[in-house]
Design goal:
The structure holds 2 protein chains of 2 kinds. In chain A, about 60% of the residues lie in helices and about 0% in strands. By secondary structure, chain A is mostly helical. Chain A has a domain of about 35 residues. Chain B starts with a strand and ends in a 6-residue tail after the last helix. In chain B, the strands form 3 sheets. A two-stranded antiparallel ribbon of chain B has the order 1-6. In chain B, a hairpin with a 7-residue loop joins strand 2 and strand 3. The chains are: A mainly alpha, B alpha+beta. Chains A and B meet through helix 3 of A and strand 4, strand 6 and helix 6 of B.
C-alpha cells in the first residue's frame, strides 16, 4: 500500500516537473519572438489607389442634383 | 484628392426604397442582406423623417479599429473596403458600427455567420477591378468605370447624394440656403399644415 502511494506521488512529481519545464520553454520561445504591431490589410498600391474620375457621367450627376442651386 | 461621401437630404427622402432595390440588383446581394436601408422615424406622424443609410465610409472607421484580423483598408478615395478572404465573420464590426452597416449571410440553419458584407461605395474589393471574382465577392465596381454609386444615381427625388464630399456638401448647402431646413423648408406647410420644430 505504502509503495503504491509512493509510486503515485512520484508520478505526480514527474508531471509537475515536466509541466514546469514546458512552461519555461514556452516563455523563452515567446520572449525570443519579435511580434509586430497589428497592421491593417494592405492589398497593394494598385488596389488602394484612387478610382474616382470626374467623367462626363459624374459631372452630369452633380449638375442634375444641383440644377436648382448651383450656377449653370 | 477627392474624398468620397454619401449625404442624404432628409427633407427630400420619400422612403421609396429605390436605393435599396437598386443596390441589391446592381451587386447581386444575397438574400437576407441589405447593404443600404431606409430608416424612418415618427412614421405616419407629422414630422416624419426618412433617411437612407449604409456604410458611411468613416474617416476613422470603428469597424477597422475592432477587427481582430485587420481585414479593413481605406483607399485613396477614402472608401472603406474589406477583404472577404481574411474576414472570419466574428461580428465585432457590427457592434462597433454606429450605422449598422456590416451584414452577414446566414450560412446554416443554426445561425452561423458567413463573411461580412457591406456597402463598397460601388468600388469593388481587393481583387482586380471589374473581374468576375471581384463581382462575385463584392459586387460591381462602378467607380472604376467612371460612375458613382447606383443608389445615389437612381434617387428619384435627388435626396441621396454621393461623390466628392466637397461638391455634394456645396450642393446641399445651397439647397438649405434657398429652401430652408426642416419645418422651414418649402412644401412643409403643404404636407403637414403646421409648423413643427425638427
Amino acid at each position: 500500500m505504502h509503495d503504491k502511494q509512493q509510486t503515485a506521488i512520484n508520478r505526480r512529481n514527474f508531471l509537475r516537473a515536466a509541466g514546469g519545464a514546458s512552461t519555461v520553454a514556452v516563455a523563452t520561445a515567446a520572449a525570443t519572438l519579435n511580434p509586430d504591431e497589428a497592421q491593417a490589410y494592405d492589398p497593394g498600391e494598385e488596389e488602394m489607389g484612387p478610382r474616382y474620375q470626374e467623367t462626363d457621367h459624374v459631372k452630369a450627376f452633380y449638375r442634375v442634383n444641383g440644377y436648382e442651386t448651383l450656377e449653370k | 484628392m477627392a474624398r468620397m461621401k454619401f449625404l442624404c437630404d432628409a427633407d427630400r427622402c420619400i422612403e421609396c426604397n429605390a436605393c435599396v432595390t437598386a443596390c441589391k440588383n446592381e451587386h447581386d446581394v444575397p438574400w437576407g442582406i441589405n447593404r443600404r436601408r431606409v430608416v424612418t422615424i415618427n412614421d405616419g406622424k407629422p414630422g416624419e423623417r426618412s433617411v437612407s443609410m449604409a456604410c458611411m465610409h468613416c474617416t476613422d472607421a470603428p469597424c477597422a479599429a475592432v477587427c481582430p484580423v485587420n481585414c479593413f483598408y481605406t483607399t485613396a478615395d477614402a472608401v472603406v473596403l474589406h477583404s472577404k478572404d481574411l474576414c472570419i465573420g466574428c461580428g465585432y464590426c457590427f457592434y462597433a458600427c454606429p450605422f449598422g452597416a456590416p451584414q452577414y449571410p446566414r450560412t446554416s440553419n443554426f445561425g452561423s455567420r458567413g463573411k461580412m458584407d457591406k456597402c463598397t461605395f460601388c468600388a469593388g474589393g481587393p481583387e482586380a477591378d471589374s473581374t468576375e471574382v471581384e463581382y462575385a465577392k463584392y459586387g460591381a465596381n462602378r467607380l472604376a468605370e467612371g460612375k458613382l454609386p447606383l443608389c445615389a444615381e437612381m434617387c428619384s427625388t435627388k435626396s441621396l447624394l454621393a461623390g466628392d464630399g466637397e461638391i455634394i456638401a456645396a450642393i446641399y448647402k445651397e439647397r438649405v440656403t434657398q429652401r430652408g431646413y426642416g419645418s422651414g423648408a418649402w412644401g412643409w406647410q403643404t404636407a403637414y399644415r403646421e409648423t413643427i420644430t425638427v
